[in-house]
Amino acid sequence: MDWIKQLKVRLQEPLPGLDAQAEMLSVTMHKNGRAAAPQKAADNAREAAVMLLLFVKNDEWHTALMQRPETPYPHSRQISFPGGGVESHDVSFEATALRETQEEFGIHPSEVEVLGALTPLYIPVSNYLVYPYVGYMTETPSYTLQPSEVEEVIEIPLREFLAADAIKTTTITTYNDVKLKGVPYFDVQNRVVWGATSMMLNEFMAIAKEIRPFHSK
Question: Could you give the residue ranges of the DSSP H alpha helices within 79-144?
Answer without folding.
Answer: 93-105
